[in-house]
Specification:
The protein is an alpha/beta fold and about 300 residues long. It contains 11 helices and 11 strands.
Amino acid sequence: MHRYISRFLALCAILLAFGPACGAGFPGKAVTLVVPYPAGGGTDTVSRAIARALSAHWRQPVTVENVAGGDGSIGMNKALRSPADGTTIVMQVNQMLLWRWTLPQIKTDVLDEVALLSMVPRSPQALVVSSNLPVKNMKEFAAWCEANPCSIASATRLAELISKQVVQTAGLKAIVVPYKGTAPMLSDLMGGHITMALPAVSASLGHVRNGTLKFLAVGSPTRFKATPEVPTLIEQNIAVTGDAWYGLMAAKATPRAALEALAEGVKAASTDPAVLEAIETAGAEPIFSTSQDFTRYVNKEREMLDSLVI
Protein backbone atom coordinates (compact mmCIF):
# COMPACT_ATOMS: atom_id res chain seq x y z
CA MET A 1 0.00 0.00 0.00
CA HIS A 2 2.78 2.41 0.90
CA ARG A 3 4.44 1.61 -2.42
CA TYR A 4 1.26 2.65 -4.36
CA ILE A 5 0.91 5.84 -2.34
CA SER A 6 4.52 6.72 -3.05
CA ARG A 7 4.00 6.15 -6.77
CA PHE A 8 0.82 8.27 -6.76
CA LEU A 9 2.58 11.15 -5.00
CA ALA A 10 5.50 10.91 -7.41
CA LEU A 11 3.07 11.05 -10.36
CA CYS A 12 1.39 14.14 -8.86
CA ALA A 13 4.75 15.83 -8.50
CA ILE A 14 5.50 15.21 -12.18
CA LEU A 15 2.09 16.39 -13.37
CA LEU A 16 2.14 19.52 -11.21
CA ALA A 17 5.39 20.51 -12.85
CA PHE A 18 3.49 20.77 -16.16
CA GLY A 19 0.21 22.28 -15.00
CA PRO A 20 -2.79 21.94 -12.68
CA ALA A 21 -3.47 18.35 -11.66
CA CYS A 22 -4.23 16.05 -8.75
CA GLY A 23 -6.90 18.28 -7.36
CA ALA A 24 -4.95 21.53 -7.68
CA GLY A 25 -7.66 22.84 -10.00
CA PHE A 26 -7.72 25.97 -12.17
CA PRO A 27 -5.74 28.17 -12.39
CA GLY A 28 -2.84 26.49 -10.57
CA LYS A 29 -0.79 29.70 -10.73
CA ALA A 30 -1.15 33.47 -10.54
CA VAL A 31 -3.64 35.17 -12.87
CA THR A 32 -3.23 38.54 -14.55
CA LEU A 33 -6.24 40.76 -15.19
CA VAL A 34 -5.24 43.31 -17.83
CA VAL A 35 -6.97 46.68 -17.71
CA PRO A 36 -6.23 48.57 -20.96
CA TYR A 37 -6.85 51.96 -19.35
CA PRO A 38 -5.11 54.11 -16.69
CA ALA A 39 -5.33 53.34 -12.99
CA GLY A 40 -8.05 55.15 -11.08
CA GLY A 41 -10.77 55.00 -13.71
CA GLY A 42 -14.04 53.09 -13.58
CA THR A 43 -12.69 49.99 -15.32
CA ASP A 44 -9.73 49.92 -12.94
CA THR A 45 -11.79 50.29 -9.76
CA VAL A 46 -14.23 47.53 -10.70
CA SER A 47 -11.43 45.28 -11.97
CA ARG A 48 -9.55 45.50 -8.68
CA ALA A 49 -12.64 44.52 -6.72
CA ILE A 50 -13.18 41.56 -9.05
CA ALA A 51 -9.51 40.57 -8.83
CA ARG A 52 -9.78 40.34 -5.04
CA ALA A 53 -12.93 38.22 -5.31
CA LEU A 54 -11.37 35.89 -7.89
CA SER A 55 -8.22 35.56 -5.80
CA ALA A 56 -10.29 34.49 -2.79
CA HIS A 57 -12.30 32.03 -4.92
CA TRP A 58 -9.29 30.40 -6.59
CA ARG A 59 -6.88 30.85 -3.68
CA GLN A 60 -4.35 32.20 -6.13
CA PRO A 61 -3.04 35.75 -6.65
CA VAL A 62 -4.96 37.75 -9.25
CA THR A 63 -3.02 40.86 -10.23
CA VAL A 64 -4.42 43.86 -12.06
CA GLU A 65 -2.05 45.22 -14.71
CA ASN A 66 -2.85 48.60 -16.28
CA VAL A 67 -1.66 48.77 -19.90
CA ALA A 68 -3.08 52.02 -21.25
CA GLY A 69 -2.93 53.50 -24.73
CA GLY A 70 -4.20 53.01 -28.25
CA ASP A 71 -7.84 53.43 -27.24
CA GLY A 72 -7.55 50.23 -25.22
CA SER A 73 -5.96 48.22 -28.04
CA ILE A 74 -2.44 48.03 -26.53
CA GLY A 75 -3.62 46.28 -23.39
CA MET A 76 -5.89 44.03 -25.41
CA ASN A 77 -2.99 43.06 -27.65
CA LYS A 78 -0.87 42.19 -24.61
CA ALA A 79 -3.63 40.01 -23.18
CA LEU A 80 -4.24 38.19 -26.47
CA ARG A 81 -0.53 37.56 -27.06
CA SER A 82 -0.08 35.96 -23.64
CA PRO A 83 -0.32 32.14 -23.32
CA ALA A 84 -3.95 31.17 -23.99
CA ASP A 85 -4.34 29.08 -20.84
CA GLY A 86 -6.87 31.25 -19.02
CA THR A 87 -4.35 32.84 -16.67
CA THR A 88 -4.45 36.15 -18.55
CA ILE A 89 -7.83 37.83 -18.88
CA VAL A 90 -8.81 41.36 -19.85
CA MET A 91 -11.47 43.87 -18.84
CA GLN A 92 -12.53 45.70 -22.01
CA VAL A 93 -15.21 48.25 -22.87
CA ASN A 94 -17.59 48.51 -25.82
CA GLN A 95 -15.37 51.11 -27.46
CA MET A 96 -13.51 48.12 -28.93
CA LEU A 97 -16.43 47.49 -31.29
CA LEU A 98 -15.39 50.59 -33.23
CA TRP A 99 -11.71 49.76 -33.64
CA ARG A 100 -12.12 48.52 -37.21
CA TRP A 101 -13.39 52.01 -38.07
CA THR A 102 -11.16 54.12 -35.80
CA LEU A 103 -7.88 52.13 -35.75
CA PRO A 104 -7.05 51.16 -39.34
CA GLN A 105 -3.71 49.73 -38.18
CA ILE A 106 -5.63 46.83 -36.62
CA LYS A 107 -6.05 44.36 -39.44
CA THR A 108 -8.12 41.72 -37.66
CA ASP A 109 -11.61 41.76 -36.15
CA VAL A 110 -11.18 41.75 -32.38
CA LEU A 111 -14.32 39.63 -31.97
CA ASP A 112 -12.60 36.86 -33.92
CA GLU A 113 -9.83 36.78 -31.31
CA VAL A 114 -11.67 36.87 -27.99
CA ALA A 115 -13.88 34.60 -25.94
CA LEU A 116 -16.48 36.82 -24.28
CA LEU A 117 -16.81 35.65 -20.67
CA SER A 118 -19.27 38.05 -19.08
CA MET A 119 -20.53 41.60 -19.22
CA VAL A 120 -19.78 42.93 -15.73
CA PRO A 121 -21.39 46.37 -15.27
CA ARG A 122 -23.36 48.57 -17.59
CA SER A 123 -24.01 52.29 -17.35
CA PRO A 124 -26.09 54.29 -19.84
CA GLN A 125 -24.83 57.37 -21.57
CA ALA A 126 -26.12 60.48 -19.84
CA LEU A 127 -27.08 63.82 -21.33
CA VAL A 128 -25.63 66.27 -18.84
CA VAL A 129 -25.65 70.07 -18.59
CA SER A 130 -24.43 72.61 -16.08
CA SER A 131 -26.72 73.04 -13.10
CA ASN A 132 -26.81 76.74 -14.05
CA LEU A 133 -28.42 76.12 -17.45
CA PRO A 134 -32.13 77.05 -17.15
CA VAL A 135 -33.52 73.84 -18.70
CA LYS A 136 -35.01 70.72 -17.10
CA ASN A 137 -35.54 68.33 -20.01
CA MET A 138 -34.68 67.73 -23.67
CA LYS A 139 -37.62 69.77 -24.97
CA GLU A 140 -36.45 72.82 -23.04
CA PHE A 141 -32.88 72.16 -24.15
CA ALA A 142 -33.98 72.12 -27.80
CA ALA A 143 -35.73 75.45 -27.28
CA TRP A 144 -32.60 76.85 -25.63
CA CYS A 145 -30.53 75.80 -28.64
CA GLU A 146 -32.94 77.61 -30.95
CA ALA A 147 -32.08 80.87 -29.22
CA ASN A 148 -28.47 80.29 -28.15
CA PRO A 149 -25.30 78.73 -29.62
CA CYS A 150 -25.15 75.12 -28.45
CA SER A 151 -22.56 72.36 -28.44
CA ILE A 152 -22.68 68.70 -27.42
CA ALA A 153 -19.37 67.15 -26.34
CA SER A 154 -18.24 63.54 -26.38
CA ALA A 155 -15.06 61.93 -25.05
CA THR A 156 -15.15 58.71 -27.08
CA ARG A 157 -15.94 57.78 -30.64
CA LEU A 158 -18.89 55.79 -29.32
CA ALA A 159 -20.34 58.80 -27.49
CA GLU A 160 -19.70 60.94 -30.57
CA LEU A 161 -21.84 58.65 -32.72
CA ILE A 162 -24.63 58.71 -30.14
CA SER A 163 -24.35 62.51 -29.89
CA LYS A 164 -24.79 62.88 -33.64
CA GLN A 165 -27.76 60.53 -33.55
CA VAL A 166 -29.36 62.63 -30.76
CA VAL A 167 -28.80 65.84 -32.73
CA GLN A 168 -30.35 64.36 -35.87
CA THR A 169 -33.26 62.59 -34.17
CA ALA A 170 -34.20 65.50 -31.91
CA GLY A 171 -33.54 68.15 -34.57
CA LEU A 172 -31.17 70.04 -32.28
CA LYS A 173 -29.33 73.11 -33.48
CA ALA A 174 -26.03 72.08 -31.93
CA ILE A 175 -22.53 71.13 -33.02
CA VAL A 176 -20.85 67.95 -31.79
CA VAL A 177 -17.43 68.58 -30.21
CA PRO A 178 -15.03 65.63 -29.68
CA TYR A 179 -12.79 65.55 -26.61
CA LYS A 180 -9.81 63.33 -25.79
CA GLY A 181 -10.96 62.56 -22.27
CA THR A 182 -13.94 62.68 -19.95
CA ALA A 183 -12.26 64.77 -17.25
CA PRO A 184 -11.42 67.78 -19.46
CA MET A 185 -14.84 67.52 -21.13
CA LEU A 186 -16.69 67.73 -17.81
CA SER A 187 -14.37 70.50 -16.64
CA ASP A 188 -15.26 72.56 -19.71
CA LEU A 189 -18.94 71.77 -19.20
CA MET A 190 -18.83 73.10 -15.64
CA GLY A 191 -16.86 76.10 -16.87
CA GLY A 192 -19.51 77.00 -19.45
CA HIS A 193 -17.33 76.34 -22.51
CA ILE A 194 -19.70 73.69 -23.87
CA THR A 195 -23.46 73.34 -23.45
CA MET A 196 -23.99 69.60 -23.00
CA ALA A 197 -21.87 66.47 -22.62
CA LEU A 198 -22.49 62.75 -23.13
CA PRO A 199 -20.50 60.82 -20.52
CA ALA A 200 -21.67 57.59 -18.95
CA VAL A 201 -23.78 57.98 -15.82
CA SER A 202 -20.93 56.37 -13.89
CA ALA A 203 -18.53 59.14 -14.97
CA SER A 204 -20.83 62.05 -14.14
CA LEU A 205 -22.92 60.92 -11.17
CA GLY A 206 -20.55 62.42 -8.61
CA HIS A 207 -20.79 65.88 -10.21
CA VAL A 208 -24.57 65.61 -10.28
CA ARG A 209 -24.68 64.60 -6.64
CA ASN A 210 -22.55 67.59 -5.60
CA GLY A 211 -24.82 69.96 -7.54
CA THR A 212 -22.47 71.17 -10.30
CA LEU A 213 -24.15 69.24 -13.12
CA LYS A 214 -27.63 67.87 -13.82
CA PHE A 215 -29.04 65.07 -15.94
CA LEU A 216 -31.57 65.77 -18.68
CA ALA A 217 -31.85 62.18 -19.91
CA VAL A 218 -30.23 58.76 -19.94
CA GLY A 219 -29.68 56.49 -22.92
CA SER A 220 -30.98 53.26 -21.41
CA PRO A 221 -34.16 51.69 -22.85
CA THR A 222 -35.84 52.03 -19.44
CA ARG A 223 -35.07 54.23 -16.44
CA PHE A 224 -31.75 53.47 -14.81
CA LYS A 225 -31.67 52.07 -11.28
CA ALA A 226 -29.03 54.54 -10.05
CA THR A 227 -30.99 57.54 -11.38
CA PRO A 228 -34.68 56.57 -11.23
CA GLU A 229 -35.78 60.20 -11.35
CA VAL A 230 -34.12 60.83 -14.73
CA PRO A 231 -36.27 60.11 -17.84
CA THR A 232 -34.87 58.23 -20.81
CA LEU A 233 -34.45 59.74 -24.24
CA ILE A 234 -37.20 57.43 -25.46
CA GLU A 235 -39.61 58.82 -22.86
CA GLN A 236 -38.87 62.26 -24.29
CA ASN A 237 -39.72 61.15 -27.84
CA ILE A 238 -36.10 60.80 -28.94
CA ALA A 239 -35.64 57.24 -30.20
CA VAL A 240 -31.96 56.85 -29.27
CA THR A 241 -30.27 54.46 -26.85
CA GLY A 242 -26.67 54.05 -25.83
CA ASP A 243 -24.67 52.72 -22.93
CA ALA A 244 -21.16 51.91 -21.76
CA TRP A 245 -20.23 48.47 -20.47
CA TYR A 246 -17.17 46.66 -19.18
CA GLY A 247 -16.70 42.99 -19.97
CA LEU A 248 -14.29 40.19 -19.07
CA MET A 249 -12.64 38.39 -21.97
CA ALA A 250 -9.93 35.86 -22.71
CA ALA A 251 -8.10 34.68 -25.80
CA LYS A 252 -10.35 32.65 -28.09
CA ALA A 253 -7.83 29.78 -28.12
CA THR A 254 -8.25 29.27 -24.36
CA PRO A 255 -9.19 25.62 -23.66
CA ARG A 256 -12.84 24.96 -22.86
CA ALA A 257 -12.02 23.66 -19.36
CA ALA A 258 -10.24 26.90 -18.53
CA LEU A 259 -13.12 28.99 -19.92
CA GLU A 260 -15.56 27.03 -17.78
CA ALA A 261 -13.37 27.60 -14.71
CA LEU A 262 -13.21 31.30 -15.52
CA ALA A 263 -17.00 31.39 -15.79
CA GLU A 264 -17.29 29.75 -12.37
CA GLY A 265 -14.90 32.32 -10.93
CA VAL A 266 -16.90 35.21 -12.41
CA LYS A 267 -20.10 33.67 -11.05
CA ALA A 268 -18.57 33.62 -7.57
CA ALA A 269 -17.38 37.23 -7.93
CA SER A 270 -20.87 38.30 -8.99
CA THR A 271 -22.18 37.73 -5.47
CA ASP A 272 -19.26 39.32 -3.63
CA PRO A 273 -20.56 42.35 -1.65
CA ALA A 274 -17.39 44.36 -2.28
CA VAL A 275 -17.70 43.86 -6.04
CA LEU A 276 -21.36 44.87 -6.08
CA GLU A 277 -20.60 47.92 -3.94
CA ALA A 278 -17.77 49.01 -6.27
CA ILE A 279 -20.06 48.79 -9.29
CA GLU A 280 -23.04 50.53 -7.71
CA THR A 281 -20.91 53.25 -6.10
CA ALA A 282 -19.58 54.02 -9.56
CA GLY A 283 -23.13 54.57 -10.80
CA ALA A 284 -23.29 51.39 -12.85
CA GLU A 285 -25.57 48.36 -12.84
CA PRO A 286 -24.16 44.87 -12.09
CA ILE A 287 -24.92 42.53 -15.00
CA PHE A 288 -22.71 39.40 -14.88
CA SER A 289 -24.20 37.76 -17.95
CA THR A 290 -23.43 34.33 -19.34
CA SER A 291 -20.98 34.05 -22.20
CA GLN A 292 -23.84 33.28 -24.58
CA ASP A 293 -25.92 36.29 -23.53
CA PHE A 294 -22.88 38.55 -23.64
CA THR A 295 -22.05 37.39 -27.16
CA ARG A 296 -25.59 37.99 -28.40
CA TYR A 297 -25.63 41.48 -26.87
CA VAL A 298 -22.26 42.41 -28.37
CA ASN A 299 -23.18 41.19 -31.86
CA LYS A 300 -26.43 43.15 -31.79
CA GLU A 301 -24.69 46.29 -30.56
CA ARG A 302 -22.01 46.06 -33.22
CA GLU A 303 -24.66 45.89 -35.94
CA MET A 304 -26.22 49.06 -34.54
CA LEU A 305 -22.88 50.87 -34.33
CA ASP A 306 -21.87 49.80 -37.83
CA SER A 307 -25.11 51.29 -39.16
CA LEU A 308 -24.23 54.62 -37.53
CA VAL A 309 -20.68 54.65 -38.90
CA ILE A 310 -21.68 53.62 -42.42
